[in-house]
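User: Could you check the structure of this?
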Amino acid sequence: MTISRRHLLAAGSLLPLGCATSQHDLAPALAALEARAGGRLGFAALDTGSGRLLGHRLDQRFGMCSTFKLPLAALTLRAVEQHELQDDWVALGEISPRDFAPATRAQLPAGRMKLLALAEAVQTTSDNIAANLLLARLGGPAGFTQRLRALGDPVTRLDRVEPLMNRVLPGDERDTTTPAAMAQTVAAIFTGERWLQPAGRATLRRWAEATRTGVRRLRAGLPADWPAGDKTGTGLAAGMPDRTNDVAIMWPPGRAPWVMAAYFEGPGSDSENMPAADEAVLAEAARLAVAALR
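Assistant: Sure, the predicted C-alpha cells are below.
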C-alpha cells in the first residue's frame, strides 16, 4: 500500500507540541517533518523581544517567489514617507490574459491606480502587474536589492521581474533569500525605526492581516487568538520543485512580535494534491515553533 505525504503529515501532527519545547529540539523536529514530507524545508522563527532565532536550514538559499512582495510594499511606503515618490496615479498599461493580476485587471476600465493602492494589491493579492509597476519606480530588481542592502539585509536578492523570478533552478542564487535573512528583514520592517514611521508600519500591518492567501500555511499553525499577517509565495512549474513559501508576523498576547519565514520545496510527485499537502508542512512547522518559543 502506498502511504501518501498527506497521511504522513497527519501522523506527525498527532505528536504533542511538547515534542519541540526548546531551541535544542526544534531543529531536529523540523528535520523530521522535512523527512516525512519528502522535500526540502527552510524555516526560521524569530522572537523580536529576546532576539532568539531558531530554525532549520537557516542560512541556505531558497527561491523567494512572491514573498519578496512584503518588503516591496514596505519599500514603497517608505519611498512615499520620505517624499521620494508620491501617491500619484500610475498607468496600468496592457495586461495579458496569462498575467496573474486580480487587482490591476479589475481596474483596467479606468486604466490607472494610485501608487499605494498598487502596494496594497501587491501585499494582499500578490498581483504581479502591480509588483512590476512598483519595481520600475524603485529602480527595478537591482534597485530593490540595493535598498535592502542599505537597510541591513546583506543576503536577499532580486534579479528579475514577475513572473520570470519564480524560475529558480537548483544552485541558482538569483531571486533568493535565506529563512534567517527574510525573518530578520520582516522583523526590522515591523519593529524597527529604519524602515517605516509608525503610520507606515500600521498601514502595512493592516494590509498583512487582511491578506488571506496564507490562512492555510503558517497562520494555520498559530493559536487562534494571535493577531497575524503574512505574505505567501508559490511556484509550480515543470522542471522545478514545487515551492510553497510564507513569511508571517504575529503578536502573541503580552509579548513582543514573532516572525516566521518558511520555504518548502516539495518533490512535485503528486501534482493534484501537492499544494494542500505542502501548505500542511508550513502549518505544522509553525505549531512546532510556537511550542519551542513559548
